[in-house]
């Protein structure tokens, strides 16, 4: 649990039957007995400190790396900023958001930043935007408290999200990292 923010650790402690120790045991058990290690480049690099040509991220495989270099680098731009900062500084419309687990970190002491981020997402999202995120906890209950201004009205963010729970659960079971309690896929109905 090194490097795990206190808010995320509290979610695991309060939501996971058996607390943090049982969570870690169950994660390791799944990685070692349910998920094939032969192509699990996440755990390979944790254990050995390196990848192999066969067991590495797709973008590092020779044929994909060359294709990316040849056909894709002109479409990539690097920004060092928060999600909210990028969205507020750039007049762009976005259809896909990968939020990872940082909302867990903002959920307690930095809740106003979480709401401001969601406002920026709603302001820049195209209709039907898709969002994915994960959480250390089994639930992201903190989203129940997030409100944004939508069409001039203060609106709970969960009223704007249409979850694909079945696909999220299916993909979460296949997660090779397997150190998160939950995974979410939602469409933003704006």
Residues in helix, %: 40-55%
Give, in spatial order, the strands making up the sheet with the most strands. Answer: 1-2-6-5
Mean pLDDT: 91
Strand content: 15-25%
Whole-Å distance between the termini?
A: 37 Å
SSE series: HHHHHEHHEEEEHE
What's the helix count?
8
What structural class do you assign from the helix and strand content? alpha+beta
Radius of gyration, taken over Cα atoms and rounded to an integer in Å: 18 Å
Largest beta sheet, briefly?
4 strands, mixed
Counting DSSP E segments of at least 2 residues, the number of strands comes to 6
Quick one: overall form?
globular
Contiguous uncertain segments of 5+ residues: none
Helix and strand arrangement:
Layout: H1 6-15, H2 19-33, H3 41-48, H4 62-71, H5 83-89, E1 94-98, H6 102-106, H7 111-124, E2 125-135, E3 147-150, E4 153-156, E5 161-163, H8 165-174, E6 182-188
Parallel strand pairs: 1-2
Antiparallel strand pairs: 2-6, 3-4, 5-6
Helix pairs in contact: 5-7
Description:
- By secondary structure, the chain is α+β, with helices and mostly antiparallel strands.
- The chain has a domain at about 75-190.
- Helices cover about 40% and strands about 20% of the residues.
- It contains 8 helices and 6 strands; from the N terminus they run αααααβααββββαβ.
- It has helices at about 5-15, 20-35, 40-50, 60-70, 85-90, 100-105, 110-125, 165-175; strands at about 95-100, 125-135, 145-150, 155, 160-165, 180-190.
- The chain has a 4-stranded mixed sheet.
- Strand 3 and strand 4 (about 155) form a beta hairpin.
- Helix 5 (about 85-90) crosses helix 7.
- The N and C termini lie far apart (about 35 Å).
- The model has no long low-confidence stretch (mean pLDDT about 90).
């Amino acid at each position: 649990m090194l490097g795990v923010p206190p808010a995320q650790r509290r979610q695991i402690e309060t939501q996971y039957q058996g607390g943090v120790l049982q969570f870690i045991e169950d994660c390791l058990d799944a990685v070692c007995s349910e998920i094939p290690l032969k192509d699990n480049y996440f755990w390979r690099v944790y254990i050995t400190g390196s990848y192999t040509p066969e067991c590495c991220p797709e973008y590092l495989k020779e044929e994909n790396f060359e294709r990316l270099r040849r056909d894709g680098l002109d479409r990539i731009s690097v920004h060092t900023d928060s999600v909210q900062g990028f969205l507020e500084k750039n007049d762009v419309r976005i259809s896909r958001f990968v939020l990872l687990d940082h909302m867990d970190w903002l959920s307690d002491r930095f809740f106003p930043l979480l709401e401001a981020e969601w406002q920026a997402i709603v302001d820049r999202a195209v209709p039907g935007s898709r969002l994915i995120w994960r959480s250390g906890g089994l639930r992201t209950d903190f989203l129940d408290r997030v409100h944004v201004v939508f069409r001039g009205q203060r609106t709970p963010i969960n009223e704007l999200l249409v979850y694909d729970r079945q696909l999220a659960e299916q993909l979460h079971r296949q997660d090779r990292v397997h150190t998160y309690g939950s995974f979410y896929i939602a469409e933003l109905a704006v």
